[in-house]
Write a structure and sequence with these properties.
The complex is a heterodimer of chains A (321) and B (326).
Chain A (H helix, E strand, L loop, with lengths): L5 E12 L2 E13 L4 E5 L6 H8 L7 E6 L2 E2 L4 H10 E4 L3 H4 L6 H11 L6 H11 L5 H5 L8 H13 L5 E5 L7 H18 L2 E6 L2 H7 L2 E6 L2 E7 H6 L4 H8 L33 H4 L2 H4 L3 H6 L5 E2 L5 E2 L6
Parallel strand pairs in A: 3-8, 3-9, 6-7, 7-8
Antiparallel strand pairs in A: 1-2, 1-4, 4-5, 9-10, 10-12, 11-12
Helix pairs in contact in A: 4-5, 4-7, 5-7
Chain B lengths: L3 E12 L2 E13 L4 E5 L6 H8 L8 E8 L2 E2 L5 H7 L4 E4 L3 H4 L6 H12 L4 H14 L16 H13 L5 E5 L7 H18 L2 E6 L2 H7 L2 E6 L2 E7 H6 L4 H9 L50 E2 L5 E2 L14
Parallel strand pairs in B: 3-8, 3-9, 6-7, 7-8
Antiparallel strand pairs in B: 1-2, 1-4, 4-5, 9-10, 10-12, 11-12
Classes of the chains: A alpha/beta (321), B alpha/beta (326).
C-alpha cells in the first residue's frame, strides 16, 4: 500500500443542515497510484465532488484519514499550502474559474508566485502553456480569457495547474461544459500528461464514455459510498453492482442492453435509507428478484460492505456471491 | 402537410460590428409524428433555427427564405395569428430549466397561465388540466404548488415539458433539453419525449451537440456546421457511417464503451468552431478537416445526394452519385 500516491482511509465528510446531519461522504477508502487515472462516477449529490474537495483540504473530515505521499492532509496552514502545490484541481466551467481581468499570463503565473516556484517566471509560464497545448505560448500570454475559445480556456486552467508540477490532478467534470469536438482534445491532453509526465488524475464525472476514454480504474459512488471499484475495462464490460449496471444501460449508445431507468431522483444524503442504501431504487428489489433470492430482508435491513470479487474488482451488493 | 418546413432559410444577426450570418441556407421538413435531431457545436446556428420558428429572435435580425408552420409562413403572420400558433402549433423546451421558470411563482400557476391565455377554459378547468399535465410528465399533481427552487433539475425540466404541452402543440422543439441533467435523469426525460411522440404523434425537433443522444431518440439526423446542414439522413446511418468528415469527428467524440479503438484514445477535432462573422473561404470546415484537398479552400460544396434520403456536403462525394431516391 505504500506505493500509493493518494490513500483515503474510511473518509467521512458531514454537513449540518436544518434537517439534521448530511453524510455527504460516508466511509470511503481508495488508493490512487502515480501515473494512474481514476474516474469517480456517480449522479449529482452522490458526494463525488465533496470527496475530491476533501483531498485538497477544502472540507474538514468527520472521520478517517487522507494521505498524500504518506503525509496526512490536515487543516494546518503550512501543510495545506505545500499540499496544494502537489495536488491541483481543475473545474467544470473554465469561464467561471478564470478572472476575466487577468491575462492568460497572469492566470498561469499566479500559482507560480503564490508557491514561490524558483526559476524564470516567463519561461515557466511559457512551458506550462505549451505543455497544455497552447502553442506558440507567446501568442496566448497577453490575451484575456474572453479572447480565446472555451476549449482554450480549459487548457489555460490546465496550464495553471501543471505549472506547479503537481503529482495529482483533481478534475471535476473536466469536459462537461465543452463542445463535442473539443471534449476529445482535452481528454487526449489529460491522458498525455499522465503518460508523459507521470501525473495521476482523479476525474469526477457522470460520463462513462470519459471513463472508457481515459481511466485506468473506475470507482462508482452512490450516496456517499463506493459501491463498486475496479479496472475500467472490467467494470464497464462486466459490471457487478446493479447501480453500475443501470448507469451503463442508459448510456445512449448502449442499445444492445435493455435500459434500466431508475425511477425517482437522486436520493437525499440527509436521509440515507437503512440496509443497503441503494435498495429503494434497486432493480433487483423492484423486480422481486431480491425476494426470490431470499435476500430482501438483508437488502432492506443490513448495511453492505465492499467485497473483493475478482482481481482488484470490489463491489457492495447482497445479491452477489 | 408538413408540420414544419424551412425553405432556404438564411438568418443574419445585425450587430454594431457588422452582420453575422448565423444560418446560411437551411432546408428542413418535419412531418407529423416525425423526430428530427439537429446536431452541431456552439455557434453553428442550431439554436437560432429554434428561435426563428416561433419568431423569437431580435427584431432587427434579417430573415430570408421561409418558415412554414402547418403550411403558413410564420413571418407573414399578423401579431394575433402569431400568438395563436405559439404554444398551440409549436412549443419550445429550452435548456437550463432554472432560468426559464419564474422563481417567485408556483409552477402550477405558470402552466395554468399558458392554458388560460390560449383558450377559453375556466380557471378550475385549467387547474385540473395542470394536474393532468404534471402527471403525464411523471410528476405528482400536487407538485403544482411547488416553487421552482423546491424541485430538482430533472423535475424542473419535466415542468418545462408540461408547460410546452399545455396547449397540445403538434410540434415540440427541444433545445438541449437534457444537457444540464444527470445521466439517469436524462434517460427519464428522453423516455418521456419518446413516449409523447409515440402516443400523441408529436413532431419533435431535438437540438443538441450530443450525437449519441440524438441517435437514440430521433429517426433522422441533420448535422450543422457554420450555419448549414452538412449531412443528413437516417440517424443510424449517419451515426454508423458518417460521410462528412465533420460528422465523422463528432461521432468519434462519443466513444462506444467496449470499442477498443477508442479505449485510452479520446478523439477530438483540432481547432475551434469558426467565427460566424468571419467564416473561412470555400468549405468552412476545411481548416479543421483531415481530408481537405487544395480545392476545399475555394469550392463551396452544397449538399449532394448519397443514397436514399441521405445527403452530405463534401468534395469527396461524387456528384454523379445520381439517384436520390426521393
Amino acid at each position: 500500500m505504500s506505493d500509493a500516491l493518494l490513500e483515503l482511509r474510511d473518509v467521512s465528510v458531514t454537513f449540518s443542515s436544518r434537517r439534521g446531519t448530511v453524510r455527504a461522504v460516508d466511509g470511503v477508502s481508495l488508493d490512487v497510484r502515480p501515473g494512474e487515472v481514476l474516474a469517480l462516477v456517480g449522479e449529482s449529490g452522490c458526494g463525488k465532488t465533496t470527496l475530491i474537495r476533501s483531498i485538497l483540504g477544502l472540507e474538514p473530515l468527520a472521520g478517517g484519514t487522507i494521505l498524500v505521499e504518506g503525509k496526512p492532509v490536515n487543516q494546518r496552514q503550512r501543510t495545506l499550502r505545500d499540499l496544494r502545490r502537489r495536488v491541483q484541481m481543475i473545474f467544470q466551467d473554465p469561464t467561471g474559474a478564470l478572472n476575466p481581468r487577468h491575462s492568460i499570463y497572469d492566470a498561469v503565473a499566479e500559482g507560480i508566485r503564490i508557491h514561490g516556484i524558483e526559476g524564470n517566471e516567463p519561461a515557466l509560464v511559457a512551458d506550462a502553456l505549451s505543455r497544455a497545448g497552447l502553442r506558440p505560448a507567446e501568442r496566448y500570454m497577453a490575451r484575456y480569457p474572453h479572447e480565446v475559445s472555451g476549449g482554450q480556456r480549459q487548457r489555460v486552467l490546465i496550464a495553471g495547474a501543471i505549472a506547479l508540477d503537481p503529482q495529482l490532478l483533481l478534475a471535476d467534470e473536466p469536459v462537461a461544459s465543452l463542445d463535442a469536438s473539443i471534449r476529445g482534445e482535452i481528454l487526449a491532453l489529460l491522458r498525455d500528461l499522465v503518460e508523459e509526465q507521470g501525473l495521476a488524475i482523479v476525474a469526477v464525472t457522470h460520463d462513462l464514455g470519459l471513463a472508457w476514454n481515459i481511466a485506468d480504474r473506475i470507482a462508482v459512488m452512490y450516496l456517499g459510498r463506493i459501491v463498486e471499484v475496479g479496472r475500467a475495462e472490467e467494470v464497464l464490460a462486466a459490471p457487478q453492482h446493479p447501480y453500475t449496471r443501470a448507469l451503463l444501460s442508459v448510456v445512449p449508445e448502449m442499445e444492445r442492453v435493455e435500459q434500466q431507468i431508475l425511477t425517482g431522483e437522486t436520493p437525499d444524503p440527509s436521509r440515507i435509507p437503512a440496509g443497503c442504501r441503494f435498495h429503494p431504487r434497486c432493480p433487483l428489489v423492484a423486480s422481486g428478484e431480491a425476494e426470490r433470492l431470499g435476500i430482501l430482508g438483508r437488502c432492506t435491513g443490513v448495511d453492505v460492505e465492499l467485497v473483493q470479487r475478482g482481481d482488484a474488482h470490489w463491489s457492495a451488493c447482497h445479491a452477489l456471491p | 402537410m408538413s408540420l414544419l418546413e424551412l425553405r432556404d432559410l438564411h438568418i443574419t444577426y445585425r450587430s454594431e460590428r457588422g452582420d453575422v450570418p448565423a444560418v446560411r441556407g437551411v432546408d428542413l421538413t418535419i412531418d407529423p409524428g416525425e423526430t428530427i435531431g439537429l446536431a452541431g457545436e456552439s455557434g453553428c446556428g442550431k439554436s437560432t433555427i429554434a428561435g426563428a420558428v416561433l419568431r423569437l429572435l431580435p427584431k432587427e435580425t434579417l430573415i430570408e427564405g421561409q418558415v412554414l408552420l402547418d403550411g403558413e409562413d410564420v413571418y407573414q403572420m399578423r401579431p394575433g395569428e402569431l400568438r395563436a400558433v405559439r404554444w398551440t402549433s409549436a412549443a419550445i423546451v429550452f435548456q437550463g430549466a432554472l432560468h426559464a421558470l419564474n422563481p417567485v411563482q408556483r409552477v402550477g400557476k405558470q402552466i395554468a397561465e399558458a392554458i388560460l391565455l390560449h383558450s377559453t377554459q375556466s380557471k378550475k378547468a385549467a387547474q385540473d388540466r395542470v394536474g393532468d399535465l404534471l402527471e403525464r410528465v411523471g410528476l405528482p399533481a400536487n407538485r403544482a404548488r411547488s416553487y421552482p427552487h423546491q424541485l430538482s433539475g430533472g423535475q424542473r425540466q419535466r415542468v418545462l415539458i408540461a408547460l410546452a404541452l399545455a396547449c397540445e402543440p403538434k410540434l415540440l422543439i427541444a433545445d438541449e433539453p437534457t444537457t444540464a441533467l444527470d445521466v439517469m435523469v436524462q434517460a427519464q426525460v428522453l423516455e418521456l419525449l419518446a413516449e409523447l411522440q409515440r402516443d400523441r404523434g408529436l413532431g419533435l425537433l431535438f437540438i443538441t451537440h450530443d450525437l449519441s443522444v440524438l441517435t437514440s431518440t430521433c429517426e433522422r439526423l441533420a448535422v450543422m456546421y457554420a450555419g448549414r446542414i452538412v449531412e443528413d439522413g437516417p440517424s443510424h446511418d449517419v451515426f454508423g457511417t458518417p460521410e462528412h468528415p465533420y460528422s465523422a469527428a463528432l461521432t468519434r467524440a462519443f466513444p462506444t464503451i467496449g470499442d477498443h479503438a477508442s479505449r485510452m484514445r479520446p478523439s477530438g477535432l483540432a481547432g475551434d468552431p469558426p467565427n460566424p462573422a468571419n467564416l473561412p473561404s470555400g468549405c468552412p470546415f476545411h481548416p479543421r478537416c483531415d481530408r481537405a484537398v487544395d480545392d476545399c479552400s475555394v469550392a463551396d460544396i452544397e449538399l449532394r445526394p448519397l443514397g436514399i434520403g441521405r445527403h452530405a456536403a463534401c468534395i469527396h462525394i461524387p456528384t454523379s452519385g445520381g439517384d436520390d431516391g426521393e
